[in-house]
Amino acid sequence: QKVRELQELEHLQLDFWLSPRGLGDPVDIRVPFPSLQPLKAHLEANGVPYSIMIEDVQALVDLEQMQMLRRRRFMPFSTSTFDYTSYHTLDEIYAFMDLLVAENPNLVSKLEIGHTTENRPIYVLKFSKGGTNRPAIWIDTGIHSREWVTQASGVWFAKKIVQEQNEGLANILDQMDIFLEIVTNPDGFVFTHTSNRMWRKTRSKHSGALCVGVDPNRNWDAGFGGSGASSNPCSETYRGPYANSEPEVQAIVDFVKSHGNIKAFISIHSYSQLLLYPYGYTTTAVPDKEELHQVAKEAVAALSSLYGTNYKYGSIITTIYQASGGTIDWTYNQGIKYSFTFELRDTGRYGFLLPASQIVPTAQETWKALEVIMAHTRGHLY
Amino acid sequence: MPGFRAALPAALLLLLLSSFPPAAAEQPPWPWTPGAMHALNPSDRHASRAAWTALHYSNYHEASPSTLRALRQVLKATVKIIPGLGVKYYLQFTTEGYINGENAGSCLATVLYLKKSPPEVYIKCAHTQDKKQIQEEDNKFYHYLHHQTKPIIANNIPDSHGNIDRAHLPLWGLAIAGSSYIMLEKSTENLGYFMAQVKAVKQRIRKDSAVEFEFIVLLHETPTQKIELCHMHLIWTLSPPLRVKYICTSDNHWLEDGSGQDYGSAAGLFHEKEGNF
Hints:
Number of domains of chain B: 2
Radius of gyration of chain B: 20 Å
Strand content of chain A: 5-15%
CATH architecture of the largest domain in chain A: 3-Layer(aba) Sandwich
Strand content of chain B: 35-45%
CATH topology of the largest domain in chain B: Nuclear Transport Factor 2, Chain: A
Oligomer: heterodimer
Shape of chain A: elongated
């Protein structure tokens, strides 16, 4: 009776979560702060026992909101609701990969090709319409962990391949497989999220070294030990104690060698807006220079056609600088003729901290260039 | 000069080969005749590096966060070796606003890289922006800073995701203007710089007409890929010169620990090195 009277006191703005029903039944009320004192006074004056179940409802609501947001980002329900316009963590990208496989079991599978220094699994997505060991195209992103637009673009490429499987990519996927390694340096990537956004190298600790990490793009067995890499473990271009010392590199080497039928190899970096072909370790031109130069020219033209983004192209050593132990020098020497490296947006203004709003435009224009390279490979299988 | 032009690509390759490894190398024997002007491919890395050196000079000397320029494209580049002195680049290039990305007109510049001192730059740019508007923007920003009762403090501009708070844009601009002084002093034919991030900024409230800031900025050095941490002290009075004092990690032969960068220990370690005044 007394509690029912409370319902009439509209100025208190009491929110009944459990309304008064009958004698002995509990009544739950959410009380706005200003009404706390008057309500307590009223209940006590009338001998109505009460207890506080939740001290601060707002705090709980806030916490739940935060958890919901985190959960929504962490576990999107499908690759259609995944946010391609944001940068993601390693866990989010690995979850995305599992979703993509689950949604497209006839096209996409996930391969584990090794483990990092910190024992994280290294995954490669395989896109295949069948056959056995078909000639393949390899794309990797994120070998240098701070180049965030590359992993983000890799995620976008994965989705794009699925979307284009019966359209623009039909011709290619009828004859070839595509392998995509989105996070090529998982340890470094996690480190850029947790500790140092500008971390470039792996996170290996070699004995006697004062500093952590090896430059994975100086660790390949092509001109290893020559000019264009550092022997100082504290350098950002430290080559490592020996070629393939890094498990991240060894994993790809093992994969490429055992697959034996990769025909194009594209390794993606940022920033500088360049499309490069071998060599980096020597000024000697590759035998296929004319063809690679022409393909690069067409790929860059296609890229620029979308948003007018300006790219330069050429061999690594003439266009960027001498670099030894580089990825595509090794892959080219393995016989993978169509070996290219990209340096994506921008040219220095934001550098590694490219605004997330530029992820999709960057991925879109880069895709145009990739289409050219893939089509040329398909039309010139060797 | 058909004969010369045919020989250029080989000579260019030789030049590039002999310029590496960077920074530590002695001045290599140039394949070109000293004293004569040699045309460069506008796409040449050296040309864009020299253009950026000129822009660092301009961005510092204008002392105006609203006038900062970024390189768009090199149109023409020639180089001349001056025996016993250094190498001089003659450049024509287009630019865009550093902050807004809009066309900011073309510039003519000469950049003389010396052996033991910072480069000497002459630069002249076409004015495409309304001078009055720029003055107004700088004035607005200056007065906003000057009227602060509590010192502005901010971190990570841009943040990890490349975002910059609208309110922090002018701070970013001021940092670029100041860092341009540092980058100008450090630039060589073979070493280029970009300001990668403002790690921290703290205002020091003053009673006079100047605004004063302490910055920690990260500079990205190419082709070494090094991230240089610099502690920069800056005083701005709206008109040039911008007064900059700085010290960077490399200046102290600072050995990084395993994690690469330890920003917390940066403060308090450095003595002041007079950058200007």
